[in-house]
Every structure is written in C-alpha cells, then in structure tokens.
Amino acid sequence: xxxxxxxxxxxxxxxxxxxxxxxxxxxxxxxxxxxxxxxxxxxxxxxxxxxxxxxxxxxxxxxxxxxxxxxxxxxxxxxxxxxxxxxxxxxxxxxxxxxxxxxxxxxxxxxxxxxxx
Length: 117
What we know:
Number of strands: 2
Strand content: 5-15%
Oligomer: single chain
Structural class: alpha+beta
Largest sheet: 2 strands, antiparallel
Shape: rod-shaped
Helix content: 40-55%
Strand order of the largest sheet: 1-2
Radius of gyration: 36 Å
C-alpha cells in the first residue's frame, strides 16, 4: 500500500499539535516534580518548627536531681581544680517531700572574655 499525497498533507498538518502535546507532557512532569519538592520542603519545615513532646528521660522535674547526681559523681572521681563547685541545700515542703536546690560556683566564669566577637 503506497502513501498518498493527502496522507502526507494530514501528517504534516498534525506535526505542530504533536510537538505541542509533547512539550506539555514534559512541562507537566517538571511541574509535578516541583510540586512534590515543595510538599517535601513544607513537611520538613513543619517537622523542624514543631514542638516535640519530651522523651521519658528528659523530664524537667527531675533534671535538677540528675544534674546534682552528676556533680556528686564528678566530685567522687577527683574532679579538676577548676571544676565548678556546687552548694546543695536539702529542703522539705509541707507534704514532706525532699527537694534539692543547688548553686553552682564556677571560678572560670568571666575569666576569658572574647572582645573580637
């Protein structure tokens, strides 16, 4: 079966439509990738800026007691001469619960001041 001139005419007249279609498909794929990237960036930003619940070990009520225990352990292992000294006070509230309050005195605070920034 031979190609007729009318077939060639129809084929060449449709070439511009085929080219536009192919360009639209390529642009569509690029747009979809850009949208997916924006979604991922937004999701990442939300996770970074969100407030996460504290883990079990990070209980703020017991943080002072954990720091006090660490300081006591360091003293027991013969700390350095420049190590911070702590003063602990044991108090009891009306319910009879014992609470520790501590003041840390670090002799190195204020000794090294960076003026250059």
